[in-house]
Design a protein that fits this description.
Blueprint: E1 2-3, H1 6-9, H2 23-34, E2 41-44, H3 52-65, E3 72-75, H4 89-105, E4 109-113, H5 125-143, E5 149-152, H6 175-188, H7 207-228, E6 240-245
Parallel strand pairs: 1-3, 3-4, 4-5
Antiparallel strand pairs: 2-6
Helix pairs in contact: 2-6, 3-4, 4-5
Length: 250
């Protein structure tokens, strides 16, 4: 079971038919391939733009209500909260603790992970990195000593800052980036997996023309949504709201 925001939904990891895959889908496929004699079922309730409050209430409630309940739950959030008023370490700790405690009470193993660090290529990136790093340090303290949680820290990995892993919006990973996250999660879950291969040609183009196109395509619409109080996930439904069997040959 996967809950979260655009990172977990799989935004910008496109298949040939235009649908989005993402690291969580890739992890489910990797687990099924590693355990061909067992049935692996997968659901993904993540929706882009969701803040922690929504993830920890609506998505977690729905996840734990499924029959049968999940054996493992991946959880990530906070990226859409960091630059907004009212954000605090204390509030994030309280919300993480709800997830960990509720899952522990139901015997669900949590795979808690941070997203990769996009800050080097974003407006207000320095503040974002500072907040994200502090948040990661707090998460590490919360999960320390818990044997019912697997923590995968991607934000503090320098590898994840490589240009080749990021899509043209500079905020979301591309297919290579999602593959890199999936490999780290699978390895942490006991399925050792090699990282993706890439070349410098995989990095997005830069230059003045690229900067102007970036601001026109992504920054200005983002500002417009913020001023209007809208989210990129408004009206969207989870892509896999109920259990689906993952073929072992996926």
């Amino acid at each position: 079971m996967a809950i979260g925001d655009s990172f977990t939904e799989g935004m910008n990891d496109f298949l040939a038919d235009g649908t989005e895959r993402g690291w969580a889908d890739r992890v489910a496929e990797g687990l099924a391939a590693a355990h061909p004699t067992e049935d692996v079922f997968y659901a993904n309730l993540a929706i882009r733009g969701r803040k922690m409050e929504s993830i920890v209430t609506e998505q977690l409630d729905a996840a734990l209500a499924l029959d049968p309940p999940p054996t493992h739950l991946t959880f990530n959030g906070g990226g859409n909260d960091m630059l907004r008023p009212g954000f605090s370490d204390e509030r994030m700790v309280a919300l993480w603790s709800i997830v960990l405690d509720r899952c522990s009470a139901q015997g669900v193993h949590v795979v808690l992970l941070t997203g990769a660090d996009p800050s080097a290529r974003l407006p207000a990136g320095e503040r974002m990195r500072r907040l994200g790093t502090r948040l990661t340090e707090v998460v590490a303290e919360v999960v320390e000593g818990r044997d019912d949680v697997t923590f995968v820290d991607n934000l503090r990995s320098a590898e994840g800052r490589r240009d080749a892993y990021w899509s043209t919006d500079r905020l979301h990973l591309n297919s290579l980036g999602h593959e890199w996250i999936a490999n780290r999660v699978l390895t942490a879950m006991g399925v050792p997996t090699d990282p993706p291969a890439y070349t410098d040609a995989d990095a997005p183009a830069g230059g003045l023309r690229g900067e102007l196109a970036y601001y026109r395509a992504y920054v200005l619409p983002w500002i417009g949504r913020r001023l209007a109080g809208r989210s990129s996930g408004d009206g969207r439904e989870p892509k896999f709201a109920t259990w689906m069997r993952v073929p072992s040959g996926a």
